[in-house]
């Protein structure tokens, strides 16, 4: 297995993928959208490079589904996965798209149901719920829902910039990202301290915590940011019911939280 590097915007260089492919490569798997920064990869171009070398291409679209339109044919992918709870379906249901002609080994051997891909009985209720969630999401996207969320996200970024001048650093590509995601580092305060000081905000730092010892986000480190900036990261995501009033309250609570949170010397 080989991992591809990303640039400071979090993007995979298509040339790096082309260089990494070998005669033994059978599958390329790349996230459509990063779960911390929301950065959108050039899936169509990357899939084309893989296909030119006879390699199957899979994309994890769990974060992207419901946020942007997804067209498996336009993207040119062979395999695509989504997670239902990321688009307001119940937890415990997801979907795998398999391009016609691609043959897979069964996940679980046994009965021949599930088109021979796994033994077991499907949850009809969860499958119907996923379909209903997808229908509602498509209706919302067709009505301009992504543009509304993007506008609110940009407003949140702008207000944070005004309330904390010179301290807010965007992590990820400014334009090539999900419309609902804002990942920023706020200079002079750790993300976990800031969240502790703002209990009215439901957000995340994007970093993993082991044995109560916060560690820098590996995503931001892979993008070339130093540990201090990674530890200062805050991942803010908007949802279907986010309002302008929510944005204004969040910005002011975060700004106030930087005063309450203890300043720390970051690496």
CATH class of the largest domain: Alpha Beta
Biggest β-sheet, characterized?
Answer: 4 strands, mixed
CATH architecture of the largest domain: 3-Layer(aba) Sandwich
- Total of DSSP H or I helical runs spanning 4+ residues: 9
Inertia-based shape: globular
Secondary-structure-based class equals alpha/beta
Number of strands: 9
What this model shows, in words?
This protein is α/β, with parallel strands linked by helices and 267 residues long. It starts with 13 loop residues before the first helix and ends in a 7-residue tail after the last helix. It has two domains: 14-142, Type I PLP-dependent aspartate aminotransferase-like (Major domain) (Aspartate Aminotransferase, domain 2), CATH 3.40.640.10; 145-260, Aspartate Aminotransferase, domain 1 (Alpha-Beta Complex), CATH 3.90.1150.10. It has helices spanning 14-20, 43-52, 72-75, 124-142, 145-163, 191-197, 218-222, 227-231, 244-260; strands spanning 27-31, 56-60, 79-83, 94-98, 168-170, 181-186, 209-210, 213-214, 233-237. The chain contains nine helices and nine strands. Helix content is 35%, strand content 14%. The longest helix has 19 residues, at 124-142. It is globular and about 60 Å long. Residues 207-211 have low confidence and may be disordered. α2 links the parallel β1 (27-31) and β2. α5 runs parallel beside α9 (244-260) and α6 crosses α9 (244-260).
